[in-house]
Amino acid sequence: GEKAGKPRLAYENHAMPVFYRDVMYREEKEGKDEAYLKLYDGHDWKWFCVHLNHTDMEYLRKNWSGKKASAPTLEKRHHKYFLRFSYTEEVTLTKTPVKEQIICSVDLGINTDAVCTIMRADGTVLGRKFINHPSEKDRMYRTLGRIRRFQREHGSAQSRGRWAYTKRLNIELGRKIAGAIVKNAEENHADVIVFEYLEMQGKISGKKKQKLHLWRKRDIQKRCEHQAHRKGMRVSRVCAWNT
What we know:
By secondary structure, the chain is an alpha+beta fold. The protein contains five helices and 13 strands.
């Protein structure tokens, strides 16, 4: 009844050590898309110049200039090396009293991506918006149909690449939905975004089984939470039973 074998250290294959600033990582002058990494060339530790993607650096300068940057991490993906930068910022969330708050109530759905209702604390509805991305969903359902036909002929072992493409389409759809929700809340000066607490445990059965499996409800809520907090808005979840 004993498990054989020695214990061994489990580590992430693509994670590299952190390049601490001034010791192992050094940036060039402002405006240049270059950085210096201290690497071991087999004999000695030397500074090597690496060229960074211009569009990525422009994005960092535009959106994250002035924010506190941590030491970058080196990652290896698909035989290429990438530097991952993470930033920290402090945002004060809104402190508007509950009775004076403007609420953006979000109802996430499958057929319609989201329905946003802007309302006051006393129940006065100020506006409503239906968020839907039919072309993106149609593209995803077409790829699912191709996968279904392919698996019928060749089996499921060879359809890994097609599933990966469908997953990327689904992730992008979640990003667009979250961005549209936060944009609508910001335009209407909402203080809090309210989501329905969705708990879907157990086996899913029925005609819409695959649609429910691909429904990125938690991912959308998490993305909305990050984006809303950056803009000073709060996020709340309510149980919608018997309401």
